[in-house]
Amino acid sequence: MKKISPSTRLKEIITDYQLDQIFPGDCLSQLDLVLYQAGDYICRQGSEQDVIPYFLKGRLKIVHSLENGSDTILEIQEKPGLLGEIELLLDRVCISSVIADQYSLVVQLPALHFKKRLLLDPTFLRSTAKTLAEKLHQINYLAPANFHYSVKERLASHFLKHCDENGTLKPKMNQLALRFGISYRHLSRVIKQMIEEGLVQREGRIYTILDAKRMNDLSIKHAETVDR
């Protein structure tokens, strides 16, 4: 973790990420700009959250550890957003860990000095409520997939979602197995099957989608919702 000295860059970030629509005006100048390295904890399961962090860019993994020592990756986050909002609102210790998966940029406030202020601010609370609603909406979509779709279908969806414009991606297989709740060996067997079927090809640790149409047919489809 490396704190970046306040500069004109912070002003640019406030504008670019519209942080004035999230934090009260008097808090903006107090934001710390922090660069987390891969493996750094932003939130640690079972510990009190001593900062109020807002993720800007990079990649994070949200991990929940069980008493038997096994870990489950609940989510890989690349979209900007507030972290630890449930713990902030409920005044509880962190239920999961948030770990930087690569260099990740965050702005944060010390919870000791700003928690009460933020919990009384309508703008911050409205933004937090929207974030929580979006996460709950996403959970309602994704949770059934773990029970009703095969690993192959889930893998096709993951590849399509995370590949670049050329259809290539470099997944972290151990993390993917944890996220799917399966063994590394099981995941490898499914990927081997997809390679043999001509859906994807592998060169080293790089995977390329060969048949986008078949992959799309195989991927998970969610019923569209209509905004009122």
Question: Which features does this protein show?
Answer:
4-stranded antiparallel sheet; 5-stranded antiparallel sheet; 228 residues; 10 helices; WH_DNA-bd_sf; transcription regulation; RmlC-like_jellyroll; elongated; Jelly Rolls; Cyclic nucleotide-binding domain-containing protein; Arc Repressor Mutant, subunit A; disordered C terminus
Description:
With 228 residues, the protein is α+β, with helices and mostly antiparallel strands. The chain folds into two domains: 2-142, Jelly Rolls (Sandwich); 145-218, Winged helix-like DNA-binding domain superfamily/Winged helix DNA-binding domain (Arc Repressor Mutant, subunit A), CATH 1.10.10.10. The protein is 41% helix and 24% strand. It contains ten helices and twelve strands. The strands form three sheets. The protein has a five-stranded antiparallel sheet. A four-stranded antiparallel sheet has the order 3-8-5-6. A three-stranded antiparallel sheet has the order 10-12-11. A hairpin with a 2-residue loop joins strand 11 (200-203) and strand 12 (206-209). Helix 7 packs across helix 10 and helix 8 (173-180) packs across helix 9. The termini are far apart. The model is unreliable at 224-228 (pLDDT under 50). This is Cyclic nucleotide-binding domain-containing protein. GO terms for molecular function: DNA binding. Pfam families: cNMP_binding (PF00027), HTH_Crp_2 (PF13545).
